[in-house]
Amino acid sequence: MLHSRVSFSGLPLFQPILKTRLENTYKMQPDEGCKFDAGRVQRVLEGALASALGTTVYSPQGSAPLAQSLAELLQSQAKEVVPPRYKLVCNVLLGQQGQQSLLVASRALWDPESDSFASATFSNASLFAVATVHGVYFE
After folding, report:
1. pTM reported for the whole predicted model
2. How much is the pLDDT for 77?
3. Is the CB of residue 114 less than 8 Å from the CB of residue 36?
């Protein structure tokens, strides 16, 4: 294999990364007792939102990075309680607390036997947050 850049020792600078190939299992359904537990994930979401946003004050400039970091935090914490082979989709909505009303809706195409979602809300005097995690079984 020829490389355009080599080190002084003659070895290539960039070693190719070999991917591990796994064989298909052809499992179309999760194992018994290994389904997405929406109640457990909801408790994780509620606890994480309360600890991360306890006394946070809403700011328009800081809301986008805050929502992104919250989504990453919630997804990583939800992964710890979700069985393997589930893909997680995490949505976080942040807004300023006021006299407005808000309706959040989502639609998805999935298998109702194995896929589910969990949702949690948090609000303080300054802001509100709605977090939704969809768990979709993936072969």
Report:
1. 0.78
2. 95
3. yes
